[in-house]
């Protein structure tokens, strides 16, 4: 086990801030109290789960696991961390700090869902088993490492569902994200959730997400005339003259005389720099009167030299109307100039796009091929946090329950096994939690599945397949991570597979059907007996 961050072998957290000290103060004070009482090494089991799906939906995507493993791998308080903690907890005994300074995750085991799995309320996404104090200290960093990744992956998946499988989705949120870490996580986990790429260059380098981009208004504004183009050539030909030749011909009946020459010069210069990667931002002055005719001039000139323009980007206005008008113009130009490729030119749209606007566009009709989505994706404006919690469910082998006036906040006690029961065509029917030691469900054998809290909600299920949802992913005693972490591409494929297999009415925007999460008869009875045992009986007078 490592003794300092520098010694760590294998996976380390992407963000240097992720460490044992990135925690809430109460984790340290509780650890001291556990230590002082001699309880720090008692065997504890914690479950990490959420109670309500985000975005008024009925599903979520589990993400962030590989960073959790990276934390486990490097979890240690450095000498300077310990020196700092001494200053904030001056009354704590010196031996506590000695003990804290040698802590690591060698006695911890983690069981988790596969990263990228579809997940549902109350199902433990991660189960942590280990010495009470260490497992307690892991609460805050684990929640931090799972909540936002899972939220953003879910948000991205919802945007993918709203846009349709055939659209290209690009994450453009770096400038609006909650700091550098929020931005990098957004790029990574939106890719996992179904986006195709990001504008974030660092995400390309560090994580391997495909990076893409167009250009900004500044590039167009910076040109006022063709005089700013010092060298008019492309491939040894007078490219500027070819572009101007198209400018002087009616392109789709629009443009001549009314288009902006500075904009045309800007497009020309950009095409000289990227003859095979030309995408024009067409809304700087007037999309239909200037931007699109200018785009067509440059696209035609490029084609004369054997280069294919990629498309144009709309960043304002009614994207439904404008995209359809752009498509009409490019289709007409394709006919007029006998250049069929123009009819399928890629129309990119950006500007405050969110799930609602994607549904609105789908309802209204549009001709957009690619959506660039920033602010609403990375800030998860519709729901800025996922409420994963981390609850003690067993201590020294004794199952523990947490009661609440709010039934949904009652925890399901004890170490549990979690299964997904599949019906015909591998469609999941429900998830079921069993008490530790209960016989796993068997294909073809009926099992009674009960709602944990509503006695009347129960169903007998005969699965055709049974999938165990949690696998051991960290075994400190056996050297740490139990297998190599999947690549982001593999996790993305897991998300896509889960979304394809689930009942589609669970995914729909309006009135999605809740997915059933249940407990076995044995766990149901146990939960309710412990509930009764722990709940005080009120005295009424
Ligand atoms: N969490 C749960 N665990 C186990 N059984 C449940 C759960 N929730 C509901 N049930 C039971 O599953 C059955 C179907 O419940 P559901 O709420 O889906 O009703 P439905 O709308 O009539 O069914 P469906 O949508 O499948 O046609 C009922 O018998 C109900 O009691
Ligand atoms: O709208 P988002 O989903 O966040 O997508 C990213 C936005 O960032 C860029 O411009 P910026 O917003 O900086 O300026 P502009 O809208 O005034 O062009 C881009 O043109 C989009 O509008
Ligand atoms: O490449 C783009 O078009 C882009 C990148 C970031 C933000 N807005 C747009
Ligand atoms: Mg904007």
UniProtKB/TrEMBL annotation:
<protein>
    <recommendedName>
        <fullName>Nicotinate phosphoribosyltransferase</fullName>
        <ecNumber>6.3.4.21</ecNumber>
    </recommendedName>
</protein>
<dbReference type="GO" id="GO:0005829">
    <property type="term" value="C:cytosol"/>
</dbReference>
<dbReference type="Pfam" id="PF17767">
    <property type="entry name" value="NAPRTase_N"/>
</dbReference>
<keyword id="KW-0808">Transferase</keyword>
<comment type="function">
    <text>Catalyzes the first step in the biosynthesis of NAD from nicotinic acid, the ATP-dependent synthesis of beta-nicotinate D-ribonucleotide from nicotinate and 5-phospho-D-ribose 1-phosphate. Helps prevent cellular oxidative stress via its role in NAD biosynthesis.</text>
</comment>
<dbReference type="InterPro" id="IPR006405">
    <property type="entry name" value="Nic_PRibTrfase_pncB"/>
</dbReference>
<feature type="domain" description="Nicotinate phosphoribosyltransferase C-terminal">
    <location>
        <begin position="415"/>
        <end position="526"/>
    </location>
</feature>
<dbReference type="InterPro" id="IPR036068">
    <property type="entry name" value="Nicotinate_pribotase-like_C"/>
</dbReference>
<dbReference type="Pfam" id="PF04095">
    <property type="entry name" value="NAPRTase"/>
</dbReference>
<keyword id="KW-0436">Ligase</keyword>
<dbReference type="InterPro" id="IPR041525">
    <property type="entry name" value="N/Namide_PRibTrfase"/>
</dbReference>
<dbReference type="InterPro" id="IPR007229">
    <property type="entry name" value="Nic_PRibTrfase-Fam"/>
</dbReference>
<keyword id="KW-0662">Pyridine nucleotide biosynthesis</keyword>
<comment type="pathway">
    <text>Cofactor biosynthesis; NAD(+) biosynthesis; nicotinate D-ribonucleotide from nicotinate: step 1/1.</text>
</comment>
<dbReference type="GO" id="GO:0034355">
    <property type="term" value="P:NAD+ biosynthetic process via the salvage pathway"/>
</dbReference>
<dbReference type="Pfam" id="PF17956">
    <property type="entry name" value="NAPRTase_C"/>
</dbReference>
<keyword id="KW-0597">Phosphoprotein</keyword>
<dbReference type="InterPro" id="IPR041619">
    <property type="entry name" value="NAPRTase_C"/>
</dbReference>
<comment type="similarity">
    <text>Belongs to the NAPRTase family.</text>
</comment>
<feature type="domain" description="Nicotinate phosphoribosyltransferase N-terminal">
    <location>
        <begin position="21"/>
        <end position="147"/>
    </location>
</feature>
<dbReference type="GO" id="GO:0004516">
    <property type="term" value="F:nicotinate phosphoribosyltransferase activity"/>
</dbReference>
<dbReference type="InterPro" id="IPR013785">
    <property type="entry name" value="Aldolase_TIM"/>
</dbReference>
<dbReference type="InterPro" id="IPR040727">
    <property type="entry name" value="NAPRTase_N"/>
</dbReference>
<feature type="domain" description="Nicotinate/nicotinamide phosphoribosyltransferase">
    <location>
        <begin position="169"/>
        <end position="409"/>
    </location>
</feature>
<dbReference type="GO" id="GO:0016740">
    <property type="term" value="F:transferase activity"/>
</dbReference>
């Amino acid at each position: 086990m490592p003794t300092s961050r520098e010694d760590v072998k294998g996976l380390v957290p992407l963000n240097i801030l992720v460490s044992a000290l990135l925690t809430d103060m109460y984790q340290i004070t509780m650890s001291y109290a556990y230590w002082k009482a001699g309880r720090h090494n008692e065997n504890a089991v914690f479950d990490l789960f959420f109670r309500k799906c985000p975005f008024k939906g009925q599903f979520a995507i589990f993400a962030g696991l590989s960073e959790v493993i990276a934390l486990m791998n490097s979890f240690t308080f450095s000498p300077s961390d310990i020196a700092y903690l001494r200053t904030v907890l001056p009354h704590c005994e010196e031996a506590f700090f000695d003990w804290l300074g040698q802590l690591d995750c060698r006695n911890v085991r983690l069981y988790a869902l596969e990263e990228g799995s579809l997940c549902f309320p109350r199902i433990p996404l991660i189960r942590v088993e280990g010495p009470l104090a260490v497992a307690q200290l892991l609460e805050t960093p684990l929640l931090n490492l799972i909540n936002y990744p899972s939220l953003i992956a879910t948000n991205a998946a919802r945007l993918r569902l709203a846009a349709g499988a055939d659209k290209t989705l690009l994450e453009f949120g770096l400038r609006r994200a909650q700091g550098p870490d929020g931005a990098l996580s957004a790029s990574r986990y939106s890719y996992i959730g179904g986006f195709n790429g990001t504008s974030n260059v660092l995400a390309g380098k560090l994580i391997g997400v495909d990076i893409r981009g167009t250009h900004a208004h500044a590039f167009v504004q910076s040109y006022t005339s063709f005089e700013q183009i010092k060298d008019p050539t492309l491939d040894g030909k007078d490219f500027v003259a070819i572009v101007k030749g198209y400018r002087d011909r009616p392109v789709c009946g629009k443009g001549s005389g009314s288009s902006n020459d500075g904009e045309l010069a800007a497009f020309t210069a950009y095409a000289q720099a990227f003859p095979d990667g030309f995408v024009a931002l067409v809304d700087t002055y007037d999309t239909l009167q200037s931007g699109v005719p200018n785009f067509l001039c440059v696209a035609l000139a490029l084609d004369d030299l054997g280069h294919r323009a990629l498309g144009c980007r709309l960043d304002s206005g009614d994207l439904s109307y404008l995209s359809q008008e752009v498509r009409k113009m490019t289709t007409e130009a394709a006919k007029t100039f006998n250049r069929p490729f123009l009819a399928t030119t890629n129309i990119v749209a950006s500007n405050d796009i969110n799930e609602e606007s994607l549904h609105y566009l789908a309802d209204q009709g549009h001709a957009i091929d690619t959506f660039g989505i920033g602010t609403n994706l990375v800030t998860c404006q519709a729901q800025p946090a996922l409420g994963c919690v981390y609850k003690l469910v067993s201590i020294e082998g004794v199952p523990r329950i947490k009661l609440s006036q709010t039934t949904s906040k009652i925890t399901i006690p004890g170490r549990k096994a979690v299964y997904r029961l599949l019906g015909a065509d591998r469609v999941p029917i429900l998830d079921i939690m069993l008490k530790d030691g209960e016989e796993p469900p068997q294909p073809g054998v009926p099992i009674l599945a009960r709602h944990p809290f509503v006695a009347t909600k129960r169903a007998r299920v005969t699965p055709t397949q049974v999938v165990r949802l949690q696998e051991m992913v960290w075994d400190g005693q056996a050297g740490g991570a139990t297998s190599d972490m999947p690549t982001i591409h593999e996790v993305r494929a897991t998300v896509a597979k889960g979304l394809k297999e689930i009942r589609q009415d669970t995914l729909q925007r309006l009135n999605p059907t809740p997915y059933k999460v249940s407990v076995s008869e044995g766990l149901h009875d146990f939960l309710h007996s412990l509930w009764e045992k722990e709940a005080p009986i009120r005295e009424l007078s």
